[in-house]
Write a structure and sequence with these properties.
Blueprint lengths: L2 H44 L9 E8 L2 H5 L15 H11 L9 E2 L3 E5 L5 E8 L4 E8 L2 H10 L4 H29 L6 H19 L3
Antiparallel strand pairs: 1-5, 2-3, 3-4, 4-5
Helix pairs in contact: 1-4, 1-5
Length: 213
């Protein structure tokens, strides 16, 4: 083999090796905190039945002012699933510090009910269309429940859902670039592929032996 051809092959190998390392550390940097969060919440989810929930219930009441009440008068026909009028949103936020912006309600002739699920808890609010009486109840299950719901994407909204998608892609890049690096270094490390095979075989055997469909 000529020296020029040998140098070209070495340069190509070095280039792809640098690429593998670059993609691996960049994706690792992006995923670091997220993977720690998901690893820890994987443990808490797996032992959820053993972790007591610190449930706190908050109740608040108010009466709508006349102008806000007029916007949902029983005389006005409002389709089920319609969002709450701006007057209601402003009054409720000002008086009991509950944000109803963009929330759709379950409308009847006498009241409107709004479900307010959120990570780590739940909530709901009921508004009497005749008297203007408002009752809110919020439930919080603590920090661990909050983090578990972030892990599951429960009631987190479209922005967090988008983040989960991006995070999943970054994790895939991290794993695949790691596999690429394993392939690069495997000729000098004979235990590489047996360890990779073991990482596949152990969960597969556990599923076959201990988990029955």
């Amino acid at each position: 083999m000529s020296r020029a051809l040998h140098f070209q092959k070495w340069s190509t190998y070095a280039f792809w090796k640098r690429q593998a390392r670059t993609w691996h550390w960049m994706s690792g940097a992006i995923c670091l905190l997220g993977m720690l969060l998901f690893a820890l919440t994987g443990i808490t989810l797996n032992h959820a039945h053993q972790i007591p929930a610190n449930t706190e219930i908050t109740e608040r009441e108010m009466v709508l002012p006349a102008d806000a009440l007029a916007s949902i008068s029983p005389d006005i026909t409002i389709e089920d699933g319609a969002i709450l009028p701006a007057e209601i949103v402003r009054s409720v936020r000002r008086e009991i510090n509950v944000n109803l912006a963009g929330e759709a309600g379950e409308w009847t002739d006498i009241d409107v009910y709004v479900s307010l699920p959120r990570p780590g808890g739940d909530g709901w609010i009921s508004i009497d269309r005749e008297t203007g009486e408002v009752f809110y109840e919020g439930t919080s299950r603590g920090a661990i429940s909050y983090l578990n719901d972030l892990h599951k994407g429960r009631s987190t909204g479209p922005v967090w859902s988008l983040f989960l998608d991006i995070f999943a892609v970054a994790c895939a890049v991290f794993c695949l670039s790691g596999l690429w690096l394993l392939q690069i270094h495997s000729p000098r490390r004979r235990s590489t592929w047996p360890l990779v095979a073991g990482g596949l075989a152990v969960p597969a055997l556990l599923l076959l032996i201990f988990i029955h469909i």
